[in-house]
Amino acid sequence: MPELPEVETVRRGLTPAMEGAFVTRLELRRPDLRFPLPQDFAESVQGRRILGLGRRAKYLLIDLDDGATIIAHLGMSGSFRIEDADAAETPGVFHMERSKDGKHDHVVFHLEDERGQRRVVYNDPRRFGFMLLAARRDLDSHPSLMGLGPEPVGNSLSADLLAERFAGKSQGLKQALLDQRNIAGLGNIYVCEALWRARLSPTRPAATVVTPTGRPRKELSLLTSAIREVIAEAIEAGGSSLRDHIQADGTLGYFQHRFSVYDREGEPCPACGTPILRAVHGGRSSFYCDICQR
Predict the structure, then answer these.
(1) Strand 22-28, strand 105-113: pairing
(2) pLDDT confidence band for 1 (50 / 70 / 90)
(3) What is the domain count for the chain?
């Protein structure tokens, strides 16, 4: 499933094509994705001007000029494709290649602005993605967004905040970090990478990185910095591919070429040379070095 950096690079790639444009037509080629599309979706969006694109955790937010916001999630296989008279491109960097098969094009935004006309096409072979429509003023209380923790970018994430959330918790760090109530948008790939950088085992109890008085230990401060760094580097890698436009599917600049442990079972640890291990924790694959990570 696309993680926060992938969704952020999609947002950055779509913004020049969508921001400020009018939706002359919203074409729905099926009534549902993972969930039924909103009632009167096409009629509600048609004629509206797109004010901007945002992101919350792994959700793409498309703000319209009537106070409504489209909440879009890419699911397992979703992607957006920009088409104009000259070319087509698929913004974003993904660990798995995105589909360009037209039979999986389900939602088409027909757009127009002073630069001309274009289409933004949502393609999703497995249809695990979805689009919802909500009032912008109610986003914080929307079922998809309410209760989310701080973003792993910006100033809201801190070791002190994580210490509050991890204090007294016996669950492993991997599961604590994947809990969206603790950190919003942090997924399996980047949790594995951040834990390796901080030299912490995925199964280490979360409470052990907090002092008895509720303060963050040095390990938690290192982990917080590692989370920030790995997310920032992944976004930067995706941003480079979008700027260069060398490959429309985003393969240039893949952060996966920088993975230290994720999906590298049996390969040598970059720090000590010990083979990387794989284990299943909470139904998700963990990749780690049992020598470096304690």
Answers:
(1) antiparallel
(2) low
(3) 2
Question: Which pTM does this prediction carry?
Answer: 0.86
Q: What is the mean pLDDT of the chain?
A: 89
* Run of H or E including 195: helix 188-197
32: Cβ–Cβ under 8 A, 6 or more apart, which residues?
127
* Residue 236: predicted pLDDT: 82
Active site residues: 2-3, 58, 284
The region of weakest confidence among 4-13, 35-44, 114-123, 128-137 is 4-13
Other Cβ atoms less than 10 A from the Cβ of 102: the count is 10
CATH for 120: 3.20.190.10
* Residue 34 and residue 107 in contact, taking contact as beta carbons nearer than 8 Å: no
Residues 6+ apart with CB under 8 A from 29: 105, 106, 107, 108
CB 288 within 8 A of CB 202: yes
Q: Which structural domain, as residue segments, surrounds residue 248?
A: 159-288
